[in-house]
Amino acid sequence: MKKYIFILMFLFGYYLFPQYATNDAYVPNNNNTQTEDNNQNNNEYITNDAIMGRKPAVINTPITGFKNITLGATREDTINAILSDNTMTLPKQYMTGTVDLNAEESATFLALEENKFYKSGYFIFKNDVLYSITINFQPNQVDFLELLSALNAKYTKGSFLNANTVAWQNGNIRIILERPSIIKYIDMNNVTTTSQTRIKEKEEVPPQKTRKSILEGL
To answer: How far apart are CA 91 and CA 119, in angstroms?
Structure first.
């Protein structure tokens, strides 16, 4: 009799404990339980990540540009702003002041040198007015989630245009964040296309502490 009771207890435990183990794998801990409203908000945020063709989030905060480089600036002012920044490097001829801006052939285009924080950077001009800024960060230094968090904090929550792109817009000025770590500031009235330019290797490596100034300058 005792033998049968032991067998029944064994079978009961066999079917009971796997069920609990399975439930633990899917049911969140009570300490992490969210309210129904929070769940709805999170679900909406995740859903946005998969919807194609969404419009940028319309915001009230003015969009001026990246750090001290402002949309609408002249080419000369843009160069001076880059030269005064300790995280960005232009090609050597700009750094040494040997470029004749009036005689330069590519007066509509300016590119950064690659360094520790920037993989590339492009500044596009039309009639000597800066209308497009593209900053391609080194992903191992400034990643997508860091950029998204900083932009959401400054401009409010952005809108996912697709799984890899988030956008904000104020008037005609738009910010576009793309994976892995690319941010664009664009005056949509002057949108044009441009070819990509190869970037030379870095000459100087800015200090690690400048990561903070990069995020603060968004």
So the answer is: 14
Q: What's the CA gap between 71 and 64, in Å, rounded?
A: 6
Q: What is the pTM of this model?
A: 0.64
Nearest residue to 111 (alpha-carbon basis) of 146, 139, 75, 141: 75
End-to-end CA distance of the chain: 77
Bridge pairing between strands 65-66 and 182-187: unpaired
- Measure CA 144 to chain center: 4
Calculate the CA 169 to chain-centre distance: 15
3-state per-residue secondary structure call for 24-67: HHHCCCHHHCCCHHHHHHHHHHHHHCCCCCCCCEECCCCCCEEC
- Cβ count within 10 A of residue 115: 21
Hey, what are 61's tokens?
């905060």
Mean pLDDT, 10 residues at a time, the chain of 218 residues:
53 43 30 40 36 78 96 94 93 77 70 94 92 95 95 95 94 95 92 40 53 79
Spatial CA neighbour of 201 closest among 92, 86, 85: 92
- Output the pLDDT for position 207: 57
Alpha helix segments (H runs only) across the chain: 2-26, 36-48, 75-83, 92-95, 144-155, 210-216
Please work out, in degrees rounded to the nearest 5, the angle formed at the alpha carbon of residue 133 by the alpha carbons of 198 and 93: 50
Three-state SS at 204: coil
Between CA 142 and CA 87 the distance in angstroms is: 13
